[in-house]
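Hi team, as promised in this morning's meeting, here are the two structures we talked about. I've kept the exact order from the run log so nobody has to guess. The first one is mostly here for context; it's the second one we should focus on when we meet again. Sequence first, then the predicted structure tokens.
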Amino acid sequence: MKYLSTRGSKANSFKEILFSGIAEDGGLFVPEKWPSIGINDIDSNISYMDLALKILSPFIGSEISTDNLKKIILDAYQDSFSVNDLVSFKKLNKNEVIVELFNGPTLAFKDFAMQLLIPIFDYFLIQENKKINLIVATSGDTGAAAINAVKKSKNISIYCLFPKDRISNFQRRQMSTVNEHNINLCEIDGTFDDCQKIVKSILNDQEFSKKFSISAVNSINWTRIMIQSVYYYFSFLKLANDGFNKINFSVPTGNFGDVYAGFVAYKMGLPINKLIVATNENDILHRFFNTGEYKINNVSKTSSPSMDIQVASNFERLLFELLGRSGNSTKDKMNDLDKNGAININKEELKIANEIFLSGKTEMDVVNTIINQVFNSSKYLLDPHTAVGLNASRKYNDSSHLNCILATASPIKFSETVERAVDESLTLLKGYDYLFQSKEKYVELNNNVNEVKDQISNKNL
């Protein structure tokens, strides 16, 4: 498999795009061609691990042998998740199913990617007797998942940036109470977009990145996306036999990585009807899919903090597809975004986007209502992000399609919001006392890329 950048340059190997994270021209890597994986060629009883091997192999090619890749996948997943199939399902009614992606060690969907991505890094590092530094921005869940995976590695250190006062206490403590020497947590006095901007700035500084062997584990790294596409296939295989030929997936969306993974599955041949982009008050993507204008506003602080994002990094990958895979056109549009804070596509390009994408916006008061209603009717608890996804799904609900709502995090991670919504004390944090009794370790930094660079430099003297 060969890869190319959304801004024109090319890469010749999977290993190159794994360790680069971002292309030298500032773009994001995508496959040169989409592999074809038909649903009819897969046994519906296939295990998640065997399915992952089937989906990921075309993207990796011969760079990791089939036997080695199978071992990496088994070692990554078989003891890390609380259910054997990794994914579990909750049917709310005949054509409405919650896809539970929070069975991993940090109770969020990010575990699917991180538990596998880090061992793939390690596979190549061990071969070459090398070490690297990873950098990641988190709006809450990515950081915890990455730290949990990296803490077991002898070859990788991580620098994790999170926005001050914009993630839940539980989310912060999942990261800050990990004391291994290779874990470096930085609180940035800004928003997630500010954290992400720092990460991109460091990655784009080729001299600095090469000096300190820096790579990324945000979903700007293609490997994250390809790994996440697997659970779309798995969900379809397990649910489509209920008499529905096509499925809608509603995806709580911030950085556009998770729903873009669904788009990747669609491009490979999964017969998805619609991908519903579910947003909160930070609705830049909702506005785009309705008007064709992608315009940056201020970031609002909400009860679904992992979605409190305005600049969705993976949007560039979709833009590349809408512009006919033209690197020059994509580069021009992204330069316009940097200069003017907005870009537009034409009606024909928007029509192409709407062939697969719909969107819905849900504000905090409605989130509370949805959580309350589902709890009272089904005795089932939604976290606020999944409530956003469910509400968006219901705007397009009809009896002819199965609507799958991706539950991206456990309600445990947002216990205060959930308990307020249902007006009941549920003792969700029982068993997690250790997080609140352990000493926290993180540094407080200004919204300044040089302060983060200093942290990396000083730790690598």
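And here is the second protein, the one for discussion:
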Amino acid sequence: MRWDIINSFIKKYRYVSYLEIGLQTGLCRDNVKATQKTTIDPDKNANSPTFLMTSKEFFSINQKKFDIIFIDGLHHSSQVYEDILESLNILNLKGTILLHDMLPTSKEMQQVPRISKVWTGDCYKAFIKLRIERTDLEMYTIDTDWGIGVIQRGIQAKLNIDSSDITYESFLLKKKNG
């Protein structure tokens, strides 16, 4: 599960501070083994977030840095992209950003607005956009639990595709051909 991946990074890098964007039931937070946990969710029905607000509101008031950040909030690529950029600003130097829902398995599953019960949204588009734009990050995806994207500071070659060609069909083709 996603918390197993998160916990493996916490253990490997001896991370202490954890930020979760998109709490919902709190199941992930409750299974993460970081000693300092901060959670954000604007939904009044979410299970006791540290901050009952949007990620945008949180980023505007936050003064802390974090070792590991898990993004699983609004599953729209534009919001995920903004959450990644803001998270990079508050990520400790050797920190890691993890993102949920990077590997949808059907066109319906990634459709925005939501049309299917199991939904990843089009989060993967934000990840691909960063792979096109940035060489100062190391990014890859772990093929488990609907895909866990990993972002750390490092070096990578830019993807050689046009950002207007980030479609589900091109995503499938690139995934199939590596």
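Starting points for discussion:
The helical segments are 2-13, 27-31, 55-61, 77-89, 123-133, 168-177.
The chain has a mean pLDDT of 95.
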